Amino acid sequence: MGHLGLLAGVVGIFLQQRFGSSGAVVLTPETGQVDYRLSQDQRRIEHLPFTLNLDSITTLKARGFRPTAAAWVSTGGPSSPVYPNHPLRLAGHKIVFLRTVPAGFPLELLIRVGADEFLLLYQQAVYIASSRLVSFGYEPATQRIGFQADREQVWLRIGESASLAGMSISLLDARFASQPGVVLLVSDTRFTPVIFSGFGLMLLGIALVLLARWRR
Amino acid sequence: MTESILLLLSLGGYASAAVLDRRRLTRAGFFCSLTGVVSHIGFVLVRYMSTGVLPFAGRAEALLLFALSIQTAGLLSCLSGRGTAVKAMTDILSTLVLVIGLILYKTGARELNPALNSPFFAVHILSAFAGYGALVAGLVASVAALSVPEQRGLSHRLALATLLFLGLGILLGAVWADRCWGRFWGWDPKETGALITWTIVLVFVHILRFRPRPWLAVLFFMLAALAMLFTFIGVNLLPFGLHRYA
User: Fold this and answer.
1) What DSSP string describes A22-89?
2) Which of B110, B163, B199 has the most A C-beta neighbours within 10 Å, making it the best mutation to test the interface with A?
3) 0.90 surpassed by complex ipTM
4) How far apart are CA B191 and CA A9, in angstroms?
5) Which residues contact A9 (CB under 8 A, 6 or more apart)?
6) What is the pTM of this model?
7) Is B203 on the interface with A (CB under 8 A)?
8) What is the H or E stretch that residue A202 is in?
9) Sequence-ordered alpha helix ranges (H) in chain B
10) Which of residues 135-174 of A touch B (CB under 8 A)?
11) From CA A41, how far away is CA B51, in angstroms rounded?
């Protein structure tokens, strides 16, 4: 039983690594209904089978713990809270509260690389030839955005241009959040039951062996 | 005040048992151990009622829990009728760990990270520490088995108990992480250290069918104990990681 459980758990991990996915969704009152996430590995847009809307952000207080924010999120129905240790499950996905973002967080960036223009989410990657161009940082006070490609970095204000990894890059426009928002992680949950039940079965096998030996 | 009294009672119980049981197990030593364990559990409950959180999060609190787990493992080994040589040593070790924990312990309450506000906080930590306690008792039993062959069976059972409880701690931590951070594994130093410890014990349990020599059991338990010490204390020396004590 123990070895079977171990095998099931390892197969579950393989399936999760191979077919599972997760990505971040930034929600602020002005983003409206969002039906996509930014994948964690490739930093590409992935569409979701549902929409997420941030209704409000409240503060939760529990005795002995620091206060935490709770995002009230609606997915086409009534509003549900999402906060640490309290994910929302929907259509084979798990929506986990990651953190809040302050006002001034960059939501969308319009850039020109060479002759092409790209409208990107903050931290969304664009693949040009063999280079991976991605925004990695921002300064709310100066409204500067940091870009990185091939281990080279450059900081740009709106209207500024620079050369980065042999490319000419311009920040044409940027939209910043005017109110605080939240970052949620939307993960695929299809294979996690296989992983947990597999390893649970393995531990049950160990427990039975231990029980038998202790009685002997 | 009540917390301090309970901790002192606990220390008295462990230390008295260490003195009374140093040559052979005595009924008085057993009851001293039991008093120490009950007082220690009483401290945990009183602390929980006064602060709202279980006292498992800080370094000193973790050391106190480690002392409780060692003492309990020794007591259970003794109750099973096989741990005569083990309990004398676990009494001394738990007393030492408790003294270090008490030196570092601060009574003031502090607010914890809201990520810790979960039922998994208790079960994950208690399972992992039950595994730590079984590992320490197993190491003692394996050393005792060098001169008392009857202790070999106990060290093997304690290896299985380590595998079970540490594995349960890792699994419950993974389920908790999946709920809290959206991923069940992150190669955090503590996670990795616990997995290495568990794997060493797993290898040992699998070579048991080849009837290894007693010194090999000592070697495996020593390796696992070193990995456990890194997992328990060493990770706090690293500048990163989600499990560093505040």
Assistant:
1) EEEEEE-TTT-SEEEEEETTT--EEEEEEEEEEEEEEEE--TTB--EEEEEEESSSSEEEEBTTB-EE
2) B163
3) no
4) 17
5) A194, A195, A196, A198, A199, A201, A202
6) 0.89
7) no
8) helix A192-215
9) 2-20, 27-51, 59-79, 84-104, 119-144, 152-180, 189-207, 214-232
10) none
11) 41
**Is some CB atom of chain A closer than 8 A to the CB atom of B108?**
no
Q: Round to whole Å and give the CA distance between A48 and B90.
A: 55
Residue B208 burial (C-beta neighbours within 10 Å; 0-12, 13-18, 19+): middle
Name every chain A residue with its beta carbon within 8 A of the beta carbon of B180.
84-85, 96
Looking at CA atoms only, how far is residue B83 from chain A in angstroms? 12
Q: Give pLDDT tens digits along chain A (216 positions).
A: 889 999 999 999 999 888 888 999 999 998 889 999 999 888 899 999 999 999 999 999 999 899 999 999 998 889 999 999 999 998 889 999 999 999 999 999 999 998 899 999 999 999 988 889 999 999 888 889 999 998 899 999 999 999 988 889 999 999 999 999 999 999 988 889 999 999 999 999 999 999 988 777
DSSP B37-89: HHHHHHHHHHHHHHHSS-TTSSHHHHHHHHHHHHHHHHHHHHHTT--HHHHHH
N residues, chain B: 246
Picking from A85, A202, A206, the nearest residue to B179 by CB comes out as: A85
Residues of A in contact with B164 (CB under 8 A): 203, 206-207, 210
Which residues have CB under 8 Å from A31's CB, separation 6+? A54, A107, A181
Beta-carbon separation of A203 and B167 below 8 A: yes
